[in-house]
Structures are given as C-alpha cells and as structure tokens.
Amino acid sequence: MTMKDEYLALMRGLAAGMAIALAAVCAVVAVVSLIVS
C-alpha cells in the first residue's frame, strides 16, 4: 500500500461520509418542512 493509495482511500472515505451527511440533512429538512406546513 503506497502513500498515494492511502490518500485516495482517505479521500474516498471522506467523500462518502460527506455524501451520507448531506443526504441525512436533506431528509431532516424535508421531514421538518412537512411537519411545519
């Protein structure tokens, strides 16, 4: 495992985590807007 491979794996993990967090935030906003309206 070279340094570059580890860096790419780390970036991929961060990107996946951010995508999941973004989806969760969107879901929460949608649910809240449904409840409020």
Structure explained in plain terms:
- The protein has one domain.
- 92% of the residues lie in helices and 0% in strands.
- It is built from 1 helix and no strands.
Explain the layout of strands and helices.
Layout lengths: L2 H34 L1
> What count of domains describes the coordinates?
1
Q: Rounded to an integer, what's the Rg over CA atoms? A: 16 Å
Helix content: over 70%
Order of helices and strands: H
Keywords: Membrane, Transmembrane, Transmembrane helix
Transmembrane segments: 12-36
Can you tag this structure with a few keywords?
rod-shaped, 37 residues
Brief overview:
This protein has one helix at residues 3-36. The chain is mostly helical.
